[in-house]
Amino acid sequence: MLDLLSYDFMQRALIAALLVGLAAPMVGIFLVQRRLSLIGDGMGHVSLAGVAVGLFTGNQPVATALIFAVAAAVLIEVVRARGNTSGDVALAIMFYGGIAVGVVLISKADTGTPTNLDSYLFGAITTTSRGDVWTFAVLAAVIVVTTWVLRPRLFAVANDEEYARATGMRVTALNIALAVLTAITVVVSMRVVGLLLISALMIVPNAASQLLTGSFRAALRLAVVLGVVASVGGVATSYYADTPSGGTIVILTIVFFVLASVLSGMLARRRGRRQEHLDEHDHEHGAGCGHPAIRHGDHVDYLHDGERHAAHADHWDEHHIVAAGQKEER
Amino acid sequence: MSGSSSGSGILQLQGASFGYADRAVVRGVDLDVEPGEVVALLGPNGSGKSTLVRGLLGLNEHLGGSVRLFGTEVERLRDRYRLGYVPQRHTLSASVRATVEEIVAIGRLPHQGWFARRSRADQQIVRESLELVGLSDRAQEDVSTLSGGQQRRVLIARALAAQPDVLIMDEPTAGIDEASQYVLADVLHRLVARGTTMLIVTHELAALRDVVSRIVVLTSGRVIFDDTPAAYAERRAADELAHTHGGHHHDDELPARRPTPTGAHGPVDHLGAPDA
């Protein structure tokens, strides 16, 4: 691991990977929640046109990509807010138009070589310059802080937009904010994972964490951990295995997803076995249901035919009554 | 729940119209609701019940007339959380995990600054709201694992957590099994005992029979009845009588009474008994 850190370009690559691994799943969970998992992909397409315009006109590709991506983000939300059926087609035209313009312009730019196009599409982290890393660090900090501040409201809007609107929340503004955060994430990540793969780093760690957690809070935390491990681990792996960083990172996230599926399947089977003997329960215990309530740690058990019933998910667990004497022996 | 409104009514509508863009669905509605009242809003499908409440909530357009909420013009009302909305369907997104507590805590957001996180007081109010709907035991569970009736109670708790001055419920009993309806009726009784003002859009008056203090009937976007449940039952009985004996007509008869395309499931057929 140490020889890897002795190279400047690898240090920069690992820092960039850390930032991207942190920011992408944080934004991604709200996209999953709003069922917009593929929107980052579309923004990646449009960003390519931005990169091309930058290269063609001799401007900073990161800056032009950012402008294009943010413009696309706002446009997408406006189209979605109108909610007409042709909106879907409008988005498709915008996304494919973006990638087509990108490919054509890059081929005509001075620096336009196939390698150059590849590096934007699939990531070329080792070519990240010192200036790039600073830009990415600032942008990543903006994403992380803004997402953290907006988190409760983004959650509320994605969970129930109508209710959020009824309580006076600025729903449209929050939706645009999320779209812009997505756009910035796409641009920050383009050197690390590439414009065609960025969406995966936003979505797949969340898909994996959803399988293993029971709350939004826990799911978000685990997704960020998986994102950072996949991103940094992917860059390190790509150094030793001599593979492209973007693809390596995404394969790692998918490995995590498969492991999470297997693990959650095993956990579900174990739970199933434990509860097989429990009867179906047509009565819902509650305050004043007639069954004596007993406080039991962090919850309440209800005494029912000599058994203690505790609510758990969609069923009732038996919490066995243990006499004081027996407890000591165990 | 109540409290902060200064003597003025909860809702004051005069000739109010609501609808979409240029099409008014509800026209010329006069309605005053005072603190502590529990109003059932009845009417057949498409009569404009939902449009009316969604108009109050700012989800449909207010097209005309005067609408005052807590003494303030509806367009000027800033503290919209004072209207505690309990939506019709469970509109909760189930695409990611979220615990019951996390959902109910959304109700606290209007009281929190941008940088604030849930305070101890917020937690306490969330806990109390969950207790009121009988879901304290389920606070840490994923909402998507709950039954339809329980999810409905989560939505009530979310509305209560906002500490509103009136609860606006859209079809709270629709589509949930009978056992859950009893639990829900219990919850509503508890709210009535606390003096909570409620506006309940419903098809099934039977389930709410002893909860409501006033009945408003809407047909084709207009209010055609507005009185106590006793007066409503009387009118229904008289109406019934007139129809079974044929011919004999009263001028003030309820037009809503006639069979609707929804047939036996029609809205006002459940309160037939004159014993109310």
From TrEMBL, chain A:
UniProtKB keywords: Membrane, Transmembrane, Transmembrane helix, Transport
Topology within the bilayer: Multi-pass membrane protein
Protein localization: Cell membrane; Membrane
Transport found in the keyword field: yes
Regions crossing the membrane: 12-31, 62-79, 91-109, 133-150, 171-188, 219-241, 247-268
InterPro entries cross-referenced by the UniProt entry: ABC_BtuC-like, ABC_TroCD
Keyword set includes Membrane: yes
Domain of life of the native organism: Bacteria
Family designation: Belongs to the ABC-3 integral membrane protein family.
Record protein name field: Metal ABC transporter permease
Species in which this protein is naturally found: Luteipulveratus flavus
TrEMBL record, chain B:
Renumbered residue ranges of the record's region Disordered: 242-276
Span of domain ABC transporter: 11-245
Keyword Transport: yes
Superkingdom in the source lineage: Bacteria
A GO term for molecular function: ATP binding
Basic and acidic residues biased stretches: 242-256
SUPFAM superfamilies: P-loop containing nucleoside triphosphate hydrolases
Keywords: ATP-binding, Nucleotide-binding, Transport
InterPro entries, sorted: AAA+_ATPase (IPR003593), ABC_transporter-like_ATP-bd (IPR003439), ABC_transporter-like_CS (IPR017871), Metal_Ion_Import_ABC (IPR050153), P-loop_NTPase (IPR027417)
Pfam families found in the cross-reference section: ABC_tran
Coiled coil: none
Full protein name: Metal ABC transporter ATP-binding protein
Organism, as annotated: Luteipulveratus flavus
